[in-house]
Amino acid sequence: MCRLALKTASEAFSPYEVLQGMEAMQEGYDGSGLGLLLRGLHFEDFKYDSKYPILSGIAHTEESWHRLNSFMEKRGFELKYDHEFETNSALIEATDRYRYFLRAYKMPASLVAKSKDEIETELMLTRLALRKDGEEHGNDLTAFSFWPDVATIKEVGWPLEIGDALSLSDNRIKSRVCMAQGRQNTNYGINLYACHPFFIQGIATMTNGENTAFVPIRDWLLGKHFPGYTGYQSDSETFTHILHYTLKQLKLPLQAYKHIITPLRGEELANHPQGEFLTGLRDSCRRLIIDGPNAVIGTLPDETCMLVMDQKKLRPATVGGRPGAWAIASEMCGVDAMIPDRDPSLDFQPMREHTIIVPPERKELTIWSQHDPYPLGQAA
Amino acid sequence: MVSARSVSVGPGSLSYTDLPWIIQHREDRCTLCGHCTAVCPKEAIYLAYRRQRMPKLDVLKKKRGNEYRTFVGIRQKTNMANACIGCSMCSMVCPNEAIMPVPNTNENRTLFFNNRKGEPMKRGGRRNEVGPTLLDRIMFNRISMLTDPALDAGRHEFNVTTTLGRTLDPAEFLKRTREGGWIPPTREIFPFVIGSMSFGALSPNMWLGLLQGVAYCNEVLGIPVVMCTGEGGCPPWVLKSPYLKYIVLQIASGYFGWDEIIRAIPDMQCDPAAIEIKYGQGAKPGDGGLLMWFKVSKLIARLRGVPEGVDLPSPPVHQTLYSIEESVMKMMQTLSTAFGHKVPIYPKISASTSAKSVLNNLVRNPYAGGLLIDGIDGGTGAAYNVSMDATGHPIASNVRECYLDLVAQGKQNEIPIFAAGGIGKNGNVTQNGLALIMLGASGVHIGKYIMQSVAGCLGNEKNRCNVCNVGICPKGITSQNPKLYRRLDPDVVAERVAEVFMSIRTEMKKVMAPLGRSQSLPVGMSDALGIGDKDAADRLNIKYVC
What's the CATH number where B208 sits? Predict the structure, then answer.
């Protein structure tokens, strides 16, 4: 079972802090991978404009590095910043790492003129094209995300060692939101794309536990024939895509996510003020019901952070913090490690009906219950 | 040696060892009570008086003579009409264990003579094929182990229901919600449905017992079981009762019973669970119902709107049916309209290599609420032997193919596929049903298993009994003869229905828990399936395990 840690704070902080938080939970992962996703970026050596999409990934060979450059140029993206990691390759298990890249691009004018949806589609297709290009060349290029104000780092190994290998403690990169996963390899071979957090069009989630309903959910998502619904090296990628489907395709409010992945029971729906709508939603999204046990931790483009559990609630994820800084972790000790100066008695462990939201203002937690009235107006 | 003419042996004469079942009778235990001969549905045995000559030779008196002993005993008839069917009713009623039928291990020569008067053999039952079915051989092997331990089947909360009826794509659902459009009706039901068995095929006591049991499952046990009427309608008191919501009304090519149903619509207290349009069935593809005159009692005649005691063979196809498109247009839309678009309408077809075409047609029909595919192992009350044994398509690969076709289109949640045909044939009802569900079915229909488990139907795959077609069911399950059906106590049937469904529910949890599934029925969870047969694994797109 993987270990998850998320920290969100008004003041940007180093991702290394979160890796140290991960150390507290180290019994739960086996060094098969680390994933980091940062939002609200701050670079020491570059005044970053958060409109610039950042391409994150790994070039495994020099040849793929050149291919990447020419591909981006052809597509009209102008390189504005190239973050060079101080890399200590001795600490990295893998040997085929030519370059880790985090590169900010300026979008071509023709793209900027387009609608928001078209821009988002183009960014996603660019990432997918790079991924495909890598796959066609013996996996020599790995692209994790290409999105404004989002950076992703994934590597095989122990989280803290990877942090040291990439010198993440040097404060050259900071962010207001940092998601981290220490991977416990379960179903699939160690694959960089199998490391959480998973990302699609601004939406990211990470999960612990097994997704026992993986195959039916994956089959249904693949049937949507949406270009971004691909990959599935990890069964947990479906959670990200369901959230994307809920918010971006169905354009439903965030509350709907929990109603889709863990609908209320029939008798509970019968007593719910919007029971009829929610029953219909359950039926039409039935193949997206998850079966856990999972804690799903997610972040959205506006830096909203969220936590939900599966219906059985067999995972003890905890949220805690203080105004201005909050942490969500799969284990209570992770929250302790990330925000020690809080009142632990106010920590909260969500039950099966809860959605925990840390809004971008980070003043206090919002706790939604599925039994609360559902904002039907927004559905319409 | 004598001339043939002096012995009564003809081409069709049979001896005991030619029959499929031989009656073993122990004269030393027989009390001559007559119970066995009275109960035998085939009149296969009779009480016989015999005389035995006992030669007597008195040597001293140089006198020869005979003495005669008379005795009585039970004898078996060897003509085809009265051949023993092995039902064992005789041994069940015998107070002294003096009689029982035993299967004949010699060849069964009745097979050569079961077409007298030019009429091929007809029977009830299922395809006579013994041994484990393909479904029996499927294993559930994706067990949650160390990383995420299996669930507790006894303590966790499980949701094992399924949707009957068309479900909209989420985007379309939201659009119609916004615009106040029609949302197709659905029902949340238990995935094991009591399959269509008509009120003419089943006895009134059997039908009543089933309905009582189904109502108990719904109202007391919280198991939302539904049952299907089959062709031939439904008693008017049921149509106007609150129990109608547990009933799927079937309309088939004879339209029997639909006068009563249509007339009852204004008086219905609730909507039926669904309407099933039967285009075909697995046991006898291309045949309609074959209710023969001896089962058309006064009650059945009234329900079906026909004279008493006439043959009621339904046509093979609906008279309105020119093509599936037309049928879809006419029947589904008409029936949906008749019930105010508040009742799911779905067709039932024989499993067939053309099932995918039907399915794809339904996908584009807004009124289609699902598809029921009935495989070759399905049972029936009456069919030609050759139809039952050799015509049709096995259910597993047919359902799998159809499901994968829907998956490719992303429509697997919109049109539920229900599967039928041989589920529980060897008693493994939950295992068979869940295997089909994980192959892609949203639920299964069970008929013969229900008859066997709740009413003690004696039919088996060795052609035991299987006389449902002639109305002489020894247990009173498929007879319209009051003398026979009074043997069946509806209360006991109802009790057994409740027991059977409670047990299926528990077994479902016992399968789902180790797979880590509890929150939704594992429809299409093919990664959990394995089979020790490479060809079958390849065909079904599941794992080969050994």
Answer: 3.20.20.70
